[in-house]
Specification:
Layout: H1 7-22, E1 27-33, E2 38-44, E3 49-55, H2 68-85, E4 91-94, H3 103-113
Parallel strand pairs: 1-4
Antiparallel strand pairs: 1-2, 2-3
Length: 118
């Protein structure tokens, strides 16, 4: 099964599948973190499309995506868009195999402060 993937990639997929089974009908807030950037998007798995997203790659973003302050800014941007899209209550956090620490934690806390209930 999925022999071409590394152990970490298989764990990430298994965790994501478990989250989807435990939270049917909810919006998934998926995080991607690289060395320079951080991104978050709200995905409706039932319909198979992205509801809203925010990233440190956007032209409107003024800051650095590789530090905690930049992650907080992305979280605030996302929270504003999520409130506008009316998805503040029916969602859960998919950290994508990343530890809940540092930039991922700052992103999540900023989203919570902006009005998104996770």
């Amino acid at each position: 099964m999925l022999k071409h993937l590394s152990t970490e990639e298989r764990r990430t997929l298994a965790n994501r599948g478990a989250l989807k089974r435990k939270n049917p009908g909810k919006i998934r807030l998926s995080v991607f973190r690289s060395g320079r950037h951080i991104e978050v998007q709200a995905i409706d798995d039932a319909k198979g499309h992205t509801v809203c997203a925010a990233s440190s790659k956007e032209k409107a973003f003024k800051g650095n995506g590789w530090n905690v302050a930049g992650a907080e800014m992305v979280g605030k941007m996302f929270a504003e868009r999520a409130v506008a899209a009316n998805i503040t209550d029916n969602c859960y956090f998919d950290r994508g195999g990343y530890r809940y620490h540092g930039r991922v934690k700052a992103l999540c806390e900023a989203m919570r402060a902006g009005g998104v209930r996770i």
